[in-house]
Amino acid sequence: MALHVFDLVGIFVFGITGALVGVRKNLDVFGILVLSLVTGLGGGFLRDVLIGATPPAALQDWRYLVVPVVAGLVTFFLHPRIGRVERLVNIFDAAGLALFCVIGARKALEVGLSPLSAAMLGTISGIGGGVIRDVLSGRVPVVLRSEIYATPAFLGAGIVVLASAFDYDALWVPFAAAVVCFLIRLVAIRRGWNAPLPRTT
Amino acid sequence: MALHVFDLVGIFVFGITGALVGVRKNLDVFGILVLSLVTGLGGGFLRDVLIGATPPAALQDWRYLVVPVVAGLVTFFLHPRIGRVERLVNIFDAAGLALFCVIGARKALEVGLSPLSAAMLGTISGIGGGVIRDVLSGRVPVVLRSEIYATPAFLGAGIVVLASAFDYDALWVPFAAAVVCFLIRLVAIRRGWNAPLPRTT
Amino acid sequence: MALHVFDLVGIFVFGITGALVGVRKNLDVFGILVLSLVTGLGGGFLRDVLIGATPPAALQDWRYLVVPVVAGLVTFFLHPRIGRVERLVNIFDAAGLALFCVIGARKALEVGLSPLSAAMLGTISGIGGGVIRDVLSGRVPVVLRSEIYATPAFLGAGIVVLASAFDYDALWVPFAAAVVCFLIRLVAIRRGWNAPLPRTT
Prior knowledge:
Chains A, B, C: It is a multi-pass membrane protein. Chains A, B, C: Its main location: membrane. The structure is a homotrimer. Chain A is mostly helical. The N and C termini of chain A lie far apart (54 Å). Chain A has helices at 2-24, 29-50, 63-78, 85-110, 115-136, 142-145, 150-165, 172-191. The first copy, chain A, has one domain (2-191). Chains in contact: A-B, A-C, B-C.
């Protein structure tokens, strides 16, 4: 139940990031809605296809289609004036990352993947939507260029996986995992945390 | 039966668009054939993977491989001189969009998706090949930048879905749906129909 | 058994190419690891999803995750100074192409695809990882721009398919097929073999 809400909220916030990027690229409202839909649903499609859970949840329940459309329309009408767009993208993106890595890990455990693979699938779910958004709109994917990004997703998914390995199934675990991922990512953006660069001569 | 022909014709015209983009990018004949294949088959692969119909039809029937290769070769030898390429891409692309949105919606209904989801899958099938073509060749995807594009596909798929909801299964329905999508898209290109842009200050 | 080793070696060399491209793009170590993972595992994911073998092998066996991470770390610490990166990418990429086209063809035959389709799936497996690497890092995909690339993969896959069609199942067949693909690709790079270009006026 909680997971279902997580999924829809994650789709909503990712949808907002897609729409914001569309606003920034000066797309018209339909282009913005397309970007909102693929960003919101892309990570989940990737996740469901990889575990063979087809058709993806988003194609079996109309709410999954309405949520990113609403996110796109809200953004279209209420988007900020020029200047703060990129920062908003990062914040909403961090929220989506946090929610999707948790759901992805849970779904992977449900279909019987090993702990390491479940953490990996959680990470893929988390970063998938943003990668698709950035590739379609011609940006370098945030997962490659930004401050640490896949790492917090892997940590969030890892917490879920560890708790499950110890048969500890309290309701607060997914919440805590998402919060940990979200906060680490936000601090990383704020402080400009980067991992070491390759040496050059 | 009619659908099968739709599928092959759709692959052919999408294959032509891929090859034309390859010609424009000055790729050699093998690069052109690759682009012809991924553009022709991409949307159907995406559709079949999303509904779990794997391996995709295109990998089970040799005609699905021959058709885009022929499209690529024909284009390679007969492509127009510089200048009219982009316009031809748009026209063939509109035909592919129209055919694929109809087939996608039908296939989605056959596997039991709900009407809204079937219309959505039809739209995804229609726009998929063009998105893959544009991403691979470094163009902004036509679905984002162009005059209304996903909307006619959604309408075409919607007509198929509505007819099926009313148990009306006449042979002319898919034809009419494809024609509606094709004409709206052509008029949109001609007239430069765009949806509203986000306001900026 | 041999195929399993092929798969892991292919993932390793593709992982190296991803990491080298990351080094060249001056990504930090985590960005490099992400690129190493998607390049190493991308082609196999695509292959497994297309034949419906989900979850992909790489998500069911921890070694598949460790191998590209090791490839990425080794490259991060031992990458060459500026200048020879692109050449190294090409050589390792040719090795990955050769290994993956063979494995892809074998897996396709195992799930009962026809010879032509199996050769096609082998080709897709071979070129998939490189396409994903190049699209994510904003390069024109090597399969489009480079000297003949898909053709050697199709030949390598074709040898496997032909041998199987004649029920000839000797252990050296996959090795020979991979070597043929690898050598043709290397000679093509060396000699700058290109297919004919479209005529322009």
